[in-house]
Description:
This protein has 582 residues and is α+β, with helices and mostly antiparallel strands. The chain has helices at residues 5-18, 74-83, 178-185, 192-199, 205-214, 228-246, 283-303, 305-331, 335-348, 380-424, 428-440, 478-488, 518-530; strands at residues 23-28, 34-41, 44-51, 58-62, 87-92, 99-107, 113-121, 128-132, 138-141, 253-257, 260-265, 276-279, 358-363, 368-373, 462-465, 471-474, 494-498, 506-508, 539-546, 567-572, 579-580. A seven-stranded antiparallel sheet has the order 20-19-17-18-16-15-21. A hairpin with a 5-residue loop joins strand 1 and strand 2 (34-41). Helix 9 runs antiparallel to helix 10 (380-424). The longest helix is centred in the last third of the chain and has 45 residues, at 380-424.
Amino acid sequence: MALDGITIANLVHEFNQTLLDGRIYKIAQPENDELLLTIKNNGGQQRLLISAGASLPFLYLTEINKPSPMTAPNFCMLLRKHIQNGRIISISQPGLERIVRFEIEHLDELGDLCRKTLVIEIMGKHSNIIFLNDKAMIIDSIKHISNAVSSVREVLPGRDYFIPETQDKQDPVSLSDAAAFVSIIKNKPMPLAKAIYSSFTGISPVIAEEICYRASVESAQPANTIDTDILTHVGKQFLQLMEDVKLHRFSPNIISKDGVPIEFSPVLLQQYADCECHEDPSVSKILETYYATKNIVTRIRQKSVDLRRIAQTALERNTKKYDLQLKQLLDTEKKEKYKVYGELINTYGYNLESGCRSFEALNYYTDQMMTVPLDPMLTPGENAKKYFDKYNKLKRTEEALTTLIQETKDEITHLESVLTSLDIALQETDLVQIKEELTESGYIRRHGKPGMKKEKVTSRPFHYISSDGYDIYVGKNNYQNEELTFKFATGNDWWFHAKGIPGSHVVLRANGDTQLPDRAFEEAGRLAAFYSKERGQEKVEIDYTEKKNVKKPGGGKPGFVVYYTNYSMMIGTDITGIHECS
C-alpha cells in the first residue's frame, strides 16, 4: 500500500505531537532524493527521514542515523543556510492531499524574523521536496521539473507554488452526508471500489476495498448498477471512516501473511481478518518496520533469483525425464508375452510348416488359446530365440529403469526441497548453504582453485520456545536438517516432518522428560506444517516420532531420512503465539 491521504493525516497528527515547536538541529541529505532532519524538542531529539524517491517515497520518524556524503548537495546547503536552528511553528495537510507542509520560523542574515515552508509531496513518481518563501514562491526543490517534463506544473526556482489538480476529485473530509456521497458515485460506470478512490482525494484502493467490505457490498460491481439504498449504506461507512480521520482515531498496523508484510494501514482492515495483524501506536514505527521488512524480503528474493532459476530448471528437466522413464517402463510389460511366445514355439513348433506366419496354441499359463506371430523367413528355433532375446532385453531394461526411476524421483524430491528452502530463507547467509548444496549436487560449477576453503556459514536453524518452555528447532535447508537430526538431537527428542512433502526437520527437545505436554507436540507440529511446501494450506498431515527411530539411508541426499515407527496428526499452519528466540 502506498502512503495515501489517511496515512499522511496520521503522520501529521503524530508530527504535531512530537515535532511542533521543535528546533531543526541538523539537516543532511544521505541520498539524492532523501532528507534527514534532526529536530530537538521537549528535551529530546527526533529524526525525520523524508524520501522523494520515485519507486518508494515516504516520510516517518526514525532512530536510525544514516551516513551522509562528505560534501553536502546544493539543496541541503540551501536548507542549512535558511532553516537550520529554525523553529517549526506549524505542521499541516491541505485537505486529505498526500502533502505535508512544515512552516518554519527563523532569523535571516540581518537578524529579522522570517518564515519559510518546506513542502513534502508524496505522489509516487511525482514525489518532491519543495522549499518556499513566505509568499509561496519556490526557492528550490530536491527535484527540478521543467515544462519539458510536465506541462501541468513547473517546479523550478522563482515559480509560484500551487497544488496540482487532482482530476476533479472531491475532498472526502468535507463531505456533508451520505446523500452527497451517493450523488458523486451513483452514475459512474466502473467498479464501486474504483469509483470511490477515483472520486475522492487521498483514498487508496485498499481503503476503498475496506469501505466496500465493511458495507458488505461487492467491490467489483459497477457503481451505476447498485441500488441507491445500498450506496447510501456504503456512504455511511465512508463517512464513519472520515469521522475517525477528523478525530484522529487511528490504529496503525501491519498486515502479514506467512511472516511476510503485505499491507500497512492507519486503520484496522477488517478485510484481512484471516491474516496476522501487528499494531503500534506510532505510525512512524509501523512504516519503518514495514519498509525495512519488505526491503529484506525483496532483497532476499532478488538474491535468490539465480538459485531458484537453477533449481527450477533442473526440476523441470528431471520431471520430463521421470515421465519418459515411466513410459519406457510401461513398454517393458510386454516382456512376459515374448517369453510365452518363445516357450510355445519350443513346445508346439516341431510340426509347423515352412513359411508359416503364425499359429494358434494353448497358453498353459492361462488355459486360453493365443495366436503366436512368426517371421516366415526364420525357422521355429530362430523365432523362439528372437522372442527370448526380446524378453531378456526388456527384463534388463526394466531392472535398469526401476533403479533410474527411483534415482530421478529422489532428485525431484531433493530439488523440491531446495525450492522450499529458498522460500524459507530470510537472510543472505541462508542462501550460502543452499548454493553450496546445489554446487555439491553438480548444478553449479565450483569456482576457484581446488582445495579452497568454503565460504564461512553463520546461518543457524530457527529456534522457538513452546508455551510450556520446551526448545523447538527448525532447519532452514537440507544441510541444517541433516545436522539438526543426526548431530544435534538426542535419542528421546521428538522429530517432526510434513508427511510425503518437502519441508523442514523440526526437533522438539525432550530434556530427558519421558512425558511432554500435548501443547508442545501441537506447536512443534504447526511449525513443521508452516515450514513445508504446503504452508498455504489450512491443514497439513505431520509425521512425528522419537529421533532414535529416524535413520539415514545409505547414499541418500542431505536431509533425506527413513522411519517406520511414527505417529501422525492433522494440524494447521498458523504459528502465531509461538515465541521465536532471536
